[in-house]
C-alpha cells in the first residue's frame, strides 16, 4: 500500500560496496546475500551521510525476537479503527520492477486478496490497484461502511481523480498491468462507493498490516 511513500536514503556500512544509496534497489545489490552486511534507511540525505561516517552500532538496534517496532502515539492522530476495516499495500522491487499488491482485514490479519507479481510495474500503481480492488470487492459484497486504509497519498489522489499519472512506459512486459489499470479507471468512472479511504499513519501506528515486510 507512498506523494507516495516518503523517499528514503540507504547507508551500507558493510557489504558489497559501502556508501550512501538513494534507492532500495541500489542498496539491495550490495547487501542481499552478503554475510555480515550492515545497512539502514534514513529519512534524509544529510542524516544518511552523517550516519555513514559514524559507528553502525549507534544506528542499528537489534530487536528481540517477537518484538514489534515502537509506535509514536499522538492523541491528535488517534488510533486506527480495527473492526470493519481493510488495509491494502503494494511491494515493488526497485523504482520499477516486479510488483504485487494485497488486501488484509485489520481485525483478524486475514489476507483477503493478493495479486501478482507483475513483471514491470511501480509501487504507486500497485497501491492504486489495491484500493480499487478493495472498493470493488466491498461493493460486490455490500460492505458499504468498511474503511479502506492505505499508506499512499498518491494512490488516494489517483482514485479521487479517476486517473493515474505515471512515468511507467507501456511495453510487452507490462501490457497486462495496463489492461488492469484501464479496467480500474473504468470501474471508478462507472461506479459509486460509500467506503471511506483513509491514510494509514505509519509514523504513529507502525507499518500498515498489509505490508509485505521487505524493507
UniProtKB/TrEMBL annotation:
Gene Ontology biological process: DNA replication, removal of RNA primer
Family matches, as SUPFAM superfamilies: L9 N-domain-like, Ribonuclease H-like
Cofactor remark from the record: Binds 2 metal ions per subunit. Manganese or magnesium.
GO cellular component terms, semicolon-separated: cytoplasm
Reactions the enzyme catalyzes: Endonucleolytic cleavage to 5'-phosphomonoester
Predominant location: cytoplasm
Binding site for Mg(2+) 2: 127, 151
Pfam families: Cauli_VI, RNase_H
Keyword vocabulary terms for this entry: Cytoplasm, Endonuclease, Hydrolase, Magnesium, Manganese, Metal-binding, Nuclease
Localization of this protein: Cytoplasm
EC number: 3.1.26.4
Family under the similarity heading: Belongs to the RNase H family.
Name of the protein described by the UniProt record: Ribonuclease H
Source taxonomy: Bacteria, Pseudomonadati, Bacteroidota, Cytophagia, Cytophagales
Amino acid at each position: 500500500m507512498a506523494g507516495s511513500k516518503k523517499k528514503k536514503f540507504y547507508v551500507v556500512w558493510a557489504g558489497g560496496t559501502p556508501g550512501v544509496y538513494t534507492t532500495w534497489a541500489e542498496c539491495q545489490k550490495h547487501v542481499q546475500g552478503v554475510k555480515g552486511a550492515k545497512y539502514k534507511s534514513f529519512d534524509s540525505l544529510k542524516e544518511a551521510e552523517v550516519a555513514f561516517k559514524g559507528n553502525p552500532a549507534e544506528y542499528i538496534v537489534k530487536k528481540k525476537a517477537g518484538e514489534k517496532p515502537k509506535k509514536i502515539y499522538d492523541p491528535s492522530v488517534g488510533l486506527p479503527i480495527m473492526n470493519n476495516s481493510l488495509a491494502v499495500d503494494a511491494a515493488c522491487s526497485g523504482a520499477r520492477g516486479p510488483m504485487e499488491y494485497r488486501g488484509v482485514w485489520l481485525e483478524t490479519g486475514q489476507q483477503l486478496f493478493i495479486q501478482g507479481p507483475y513483471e514491470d510495474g511501480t509501487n504507486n500503481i500497485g497501491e492504486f490497484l489495491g484500493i480499487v480492488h478493495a472498493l470493488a470487492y466491498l461493493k460486490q459484497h455490500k460492505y458499504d461502511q468498511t474503511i479502506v486504509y492505505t499508506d499512499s497519498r498518491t494512490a488516494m489522489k489517483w482514485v479521487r481523480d479517476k486517473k493515474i499519472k505515471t512515468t511507467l512506459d507501456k511495453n510487452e512486459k507490462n501490457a497486462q498491468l495496463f489492461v488492469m489499470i484501464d479496467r480500474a479507471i473504468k470501474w471508478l468512472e462507472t461506479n459509486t462507493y460509500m467506503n471511506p479511504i483513509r491514510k494509514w499513519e505509519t509514523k504513529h501506528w507502525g507499518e500498515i498490516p498489509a505490508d509485505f515486510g521487505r524493507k
